[in-house]
């Protein structure tokens, strides 16, 4: 029986998406340059993360896409020493990727 520390392949199932949050230093700056400490709570703030793996039933995103989701609705997991978040496709609010049609939203990140 393999131990949890051994490297086994991981396959996402159904409509599940494995995402990785960008490294956060805790503090951030507002668009006006105001320093916001890590202890400040922002209610109902959505977050962006990068898709690392998708299940076979995911239709609207691919590995490498950026997705917008509510960080309160998530499951956290550690895989090979890295922290990831597991989401369902229906929990994603938006997708940002180079492959999307130009002009589809009028917004660019």
Please sum up the structure shown.
0% of the residues lie in helices and 35% in strands. It has no helices and 8 strands.
Q: Give the CA-based shape.
A: globular
| Ends distance | 45 Å
> What proportion of the residues form beta strands (DSSP E)?
25-35%
CATH architecture annotation name of the domain at 16-24 and 34-96 = Roll
Low-confidence stretches: none
Count of strand segments: 8
Main beta sheet: strand number and arrangement? 6 strands, antiparallel
Structural class: mainly beta
Order of helices and strands: EEEEEEEE
User: Helix proportion of residues, in percent?
Assistant: under 10%
In order across it, which strands form the biggest sheet? 6-7-1-4-5-8
What is the CATH top level name of the domain at 16-24 and 34-96?
Answer: Mainly Beta
User: Which radius of gyration do the C-alpha atoms yield?
Assistant: 16 Å
CATH superfamily of the domain at 16-24 and 34-96: GroES chaperonin
Q: Assign the CATH topology of the domain at 16-24 and 34-96.
A: 10 Kd Chaperonin, Protein Cpn10, Chain O
Mean pLDDT over the full residue set = 80
Counting H and I runs of at least 4 residues, what is the number of helices?
0
What's the layout of helices and strands?
Elements: E1 16-20, E2 28-29, E3 35-36, E4 47-54, E5 66-69, E6 75-79, E7 82-88, E8 92-96
Antiparallel strand pairs: 1-4, 1-7, 2-3, 4-5, 5-8, 6-7
Describe the structure.
By secondary structure, the protein is mainly β. It has a domain at 16-24 and 34-96: 10 Kd Chaperonin, Protein Cpn10, Chain O, CATH 2.30.33.40. 0% of the residues lie in helices and 35% in strands. The chain contains no helices and eight strands. A six-stranded antiparallel beta sheet has the order 6-7-1-4-5-8, with no helix packed on it. It has a two-stranded antiparallel sheet with strand order 2-3. The chain is globular, with a radius of gyration of 16 Å. The model has no long low-confidence stretch (mean pLDDT 80).
């Amino acid at each position: 029986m393999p131990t949890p520390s051994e490297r086994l392949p991981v396959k996402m199932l159904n409509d599940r998406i494995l995402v990785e949050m960008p490294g956060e230093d805790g503090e951030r700056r507002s668009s006006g340059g105001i320093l916001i400490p890590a202890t400040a709570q922002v209610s109902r703030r959505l977050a962006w993360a990068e898709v690392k793996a998708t299940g076979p039933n995911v239709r609207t995103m691919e590995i490498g896409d950026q997705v917008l989701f509510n960080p309160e609705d998530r499951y956290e997991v550690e895989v090979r020493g890295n922290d990831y978040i597991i989401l369902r496709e229906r929990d994603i609010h938006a997708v940002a990727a180079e492959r999307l049609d130009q002009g589809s939203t009028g917004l660019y990140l």
